[in-house]
Design goal:
The chain is mostly helical. It has helices at 15-22, 25-28, 33-48, 60-78, 91-103, 116-152, 172-197, 216-222, 232-266, 295-318, 333-355, 361-366, 374-383, 388-397, 407-413, 425-454, and strands at residues 5-8, 11-14, 157-162, 165-171, 199-200, 227-228, 268-269, 272-273, 275-276, 358-359. The protein starts with a strand and ends in a 9-residue tail after the last helix.
């Protein structure tokens, strides 16, 4: 059964089919609206310098009028008044509709030598660029909060566990900075995803180039990318791949956060009350008046699974796709955007949780029992000349004779690289700083390019 056909810029489509094929694009694409205008600005600037055979494709005044119209659309977007209709299908045609309305015949020429396929690929990369820079800052902030906690309680003894069983003397400094270092490694993955993303697909058109001498290096430079994505077919095929690379980095962040969350849930139980979470970050129970629940950590733990799911969903769409654009790729948009947004939200909330958290020296000390010192005792015998296996056996045969000696002394004796008394927190703080500087410099560079392109101070735009 067919329903009424709806007129679109690219043909008349049955309205049910149209609703099905556009999916959530009219909503999701709102997040791409501003970068879509920026991509168009670069494209028309490049076209303006191009001899279309009978002279430039756009005269200087036409070019200026298009840039001004794009700036106006950006103002409409920021005012929350930009709409993507079903007939538009997506942001690209919505922007073209608005441009044609203000500019008349000039607007009808802006889609020269490009396709929505390279527009959406470019939009997603520009969107990802600033998202990743913000994520890097947020990750650095959480790592800094963990390092401040590590510094504050650096030498406070804490039972180190394996199999969740008491194992060896350790410290709060080791616990907190282990989580910080894990996140810093994840930030390195995010920076490498950033680099992967930093190539301009624009000008690949439908994936096979155009018979016009377009300048892809210029559009790449105008948009502040490090280089054009070289091969036109790969420029399109890298859509989806780029998102999965970024979601992989997000997944590593979430795996780190889920372990931190799990530790916090365990180490704030009455049985292991080592840390106290800020009261405002816990919720109570509707029936049990005594409850202070670690909901934030629990939700972060659960959201890690969701981000893993987003990665799997995105990879599933990409796997086995034939070369060239396929509409399947549209389905990567939602898991990609949600995965990045969830990761960022978790980083932000966890930083605040850690900033307000305190360690309970007494409970941490009370957790020590003689068994925790067994391995250290065996190593003491080794220092006296006994082979380790003999020392191990002797301690094992005399576990009852073990004493709960001073946790503080035990921690102080482990002074080799990375051990409780050999932690180089300054080294890790240096890595935090490097991440922040990278994000700051890249953002500055990007804003500089876009400001020049739009002829205004971006991102403020005179607001
Ligand atoms: N909304 C589409 C997407 O996300 C834009 C590209 C449409 N291209 C096409 N050939 N139908 O993939």
């Amino acid at each position: 059964m067919t329903t009424k056909a709806q007129k679109t810029l690219v043909g008349n489509v049955d309205s049910h089919v149209l609703a099905f094929t556009i999916g959530k694009d009219p909503v999701l694409d709102l997040a791409l609206a501003e970068v879509d205008c920026i991509g168009s600005a670069a494209h028309v600037t490049m076209l303006a310098g191009l001899d279309g055979g009978t002279g430039p494709l756009f005269t200087p005044s036409e070019h200026a009028a298009i840039i001004a119209a794009l700036r106006d659309i950006m103002a409409t977007i920021r005012a929350g008044k930009f709409r993507i209709t079903a007939a538009d299908q997506d942001v690209h045609l919505a922007v073209e509709r608005m441009l044609s309305k203000t500019l008349g015949p000039i607007g009808r020429r802006i889609h020269t030598a490009r396709s929505r396929n390279d527009q959406v690929a470019t939009d997603l990369r520009l969107f990802a660029k600033t998202e990743l820079l913000d994520l890097l800052n947020e990750g650095a902030a959480l790592a800094a909060a963990l390092l401040a906690f590590a510094q504050r309680y650096k030498n406070v003894p804490m039972v180190g566990r394996t199999h969740m069983q008491p194992a060896m003397p350790s410290s709060v400094g080791v616990w907190a900075s282990a989580h910080a270092e894990s996140l810093l490694d994840d930030m390195a993955l995010a920076m490498s995803a950033y680099d992967f993303n930093d190539r301009c697909p624009l000008g690949s058109a439908a994936g096979y180039g155009v018979p016009l001498p377009i300048d892809r290096q210029l559009t790449s430079d105008l948009l502040g990318f490090s280089a054009p994505q070289h091969n036109v077919l790969y420029a399109g095929n890298a859509r989806g791949k780029c998102e999965t690379v970024i979601l992989s980095a997000c997944t590593q962040v979430m795996l780190s956060l889920s372990r931190l969350a799990e530790d916090l849930i365990l180490f704030t139980t009455p049985e292991m009350p080592y840390f106290t979470l800020p009261a405002a970050y816990c919720t109570g129970s509707s029936i049990m008046p005594q409850k202070q629940n670690p909901d934030v950590a629990e939700l972060v733990r659960a959201k890690a699974s969701r981000v893993m799911g987003h990665l799997t969903a995105a990879m599933g769409v990409v796997k086995g796709l034939p070369s060239g654009y396929n509409r399947d790729l549209q389905e990567v948009k939602e898991p990609f955007m949600e995965g990045v947004a969830t990761t960022r939200a978790c980083l932000v909330v966890m930083a605040r949780l850690v900033e307000g958290m305190t360690a309970n020296r007494k409970a941490l000390g009370d957790a020590f029992e003689a068994g925790v010192f067994a391995a250290d005792r065996a190593l003491e015998l080794v220092a006296e000349g006994m082979p380790f296996r003999d020392a191990y056996q002797q301690v094992k045969d005399n576990l009852d004779a073990l004493e709960c000696t001073s946790p503080k002394d035990a921690v102080a004796q482990k002074n080799h690289l990375g051990a409780p008394a050999g932690l180089d927190l300054a080294l890790l703080k240096g890595r935090v700083k490097a991440v922040k500087l990278f994000a700051r410099d890249e953002k500055k560079q990007y804003y500089k390019c876009i400001s020049a392109l739009l002829g205004t101070n971006y991102p403020e735009m005179g607001a």
